[in-house]
């Protein structure tokens, strides 16, 4: 362990065009509480010690493209026990599967605002 000061991720915030549909989607998919919500911002909280998820309204929001080889972007990787079942649940909640899928050991979806996220086998993440 180092004696140097470190930081921890407290929250990841995604830009969205509309806060409520994104907050509803992520709350249902992750099982997290919407701790605060306005027309411009929502914060979801998960289990103790986990980073929060923020959703901030941006007037000129443009969903990232997938796959995108020209811009730097990030996406969330979610560890799940059953990829197919969770993909079905995510679609029921408003996500869309990308086509074609880039691999066989994970699924790539887009949330209602167009942010890409991956479902991957929880056994591989400990």
TrEMBL record:
Transmembrane segments: none
Record SUPFAM superfamilies: Glyoxalase/Bleomycin resistance protein/Dihydroxybiphenyl dioxygenase
InterPro entries: Glyas_Bleomycin-R_OHBP_Dase (IPR029068), Glyoxalase_6 (IPR041581), VOC_core (IPR037523)
Annotated CDD domains: VOC (cd06587)
Domain VOC stretches: 8-126
Pfam families to which the protein is assigned, alphabetical: Glyoxalase_6
Record-linked PANTHER family: CONSERVED PROTEIN, HYPOTHETICAL FUSION PROTEIN
Protein's recorded name: VOC family protein
Organism of this sequence: Nocardioides baculatus
């Amino acid at each position: 362990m180092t004696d140097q000061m470190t930081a921890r991720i407290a929250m990841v915030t995604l830009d969205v065009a509309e806060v409520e549909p994104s907050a509803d989607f992520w709350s249902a998919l992750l099982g997290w509480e919407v701790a605060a919500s306005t027309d411009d911002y929502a914060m979801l909280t998960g289990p103790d010690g986990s980073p929060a998820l923020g959703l901030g309204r941006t007037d000129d929001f443009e969903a990232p493209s997938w796959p995108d080889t020209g811009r730097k972007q990030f996406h969330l990787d979610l560890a799940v026990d059953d990829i197919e079942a969770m993909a079905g649940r995510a679609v029921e909640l408003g996500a869309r599967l990308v086509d074609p899928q880039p691999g066989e050991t994970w699924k790539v979806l887009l949330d209602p605002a167009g942010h890409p996220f991956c479902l991957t086998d929880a056994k591989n993440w400990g």
